[in-house]
Specification:
The structure is a homodimer of 138-residue chains.
Chain A (H helix, E strand, L loop, with lengths): L1 H9 L6 H12 L4 E2 H7 L5 H13 L3 E5 L5 E5 L13 E6 L5 E8 L10 E12 L1 H4 L2
Helix pairs in contact in A: 3-4
The structure holds a DNA duplex (30 and 30 nucleotides).
DNA sequence: ATAAGGATGCAACGGAAGTGCATTTATTGT
DNA sequence: ACAATAAATGCACTTCCGTTGCATCCTTAT
């Protein structure tokens, strides 16, 4: 719990009890988390608080937002030292169409792509979809 | 108009007047189109019809759906002969954060990625974000 | 001509993101 | 320690978009 407090402080996020719990929750899940998930896990807390916590986390670089094509925003903790920068931190995500979970594949960075003149790339999102290792039974 | 009719028929879509108009509309736009866009362009038609038309188109391989991270589903015509297959037809998309338009870069296929054992890839979505050629002034 | 199936239109629902404002909790300065 | 200030939380409400059920209209085949 101490490490969480430190991590948040480092990123300029005031470590309230709620925030630490949410961080902890995110940390113990290996899949990306939607607002609704957190909402269910913390029945007592208000949705707005959770929503704003995630937004704060995102803004301060504690988590990154993932758009896996399901239409709901999901979030996952950033790696330590992550700056969410293209070609460096941005990795691909895998969405399993069977269990509906989305995981970070942090080892797999988004490959560099040469765009035509005039295009300036600032961000990228690569999602592969299919069957994850859990569901494929391997 | 005759070509449109033929194209739809080929794909197993009954070429009604409405559908041909929507196809035409999609064809003359170079950016991906959201339901709302079509809705505004065809004020007389009902949203449901437009919605279902897009879904039919998608299902029959006339258009492909694009998730550019804005939270709204967009659609663009498939290339002739497209089968929406990975490593073959799936191309990347570019979303301009300035003009909010998303375009297909059909020349740029999604690079092959070697996933760990157990992952079975069936689909992919790669969106680059930044400033498009129009907006960067080149 | 009529029956059947598909296309369209209308109304309504539901989920998720987001905002304004009041209230509570924490922090700072004296 | 206390007031003043700022930040965090909670409540109510809104909006947007996707989606579905059902009725009606149109087209096609027999």
């Amino acid at each position: 719990m101490k490490e969480i407090e430190q991590r948040l402080t480092e990123n300029g996020v005031r470590p309230t009890a709620m925030r630490m719990l949410i961080y902890k929750y995110l940390a113990q899940k290996d899949a990306a988390i939607a607002l609704t998930d957190i909402e269910n896990a913390f029945a007592k807390a208000d949705r707005t608080t959770l929503f704003r916590t995630l937004k704060t986390f995102e803004q301060k670089g504690v988590v990154h937002q993932i758009d896996d094509g399901t239409g709901v925003q999901k979030y996952a903790l950033c790696e330590p030292g992550c700056n969410c920068e293209l070609e460096q931190d941005l990795h691909l995500h895998f969405h399993c169409t069977n269990c509906d979970e989305t995981v970070c594949l942090t080892e797999h960075k988004i490959p560099h792509i040469n765009l035509p003149e005039g295009y300036i790339t600032e961000d990228a999102n690569l999602v592969l979809k299919g069957i994850c290792e859990k569901c494929s039974g391997q």
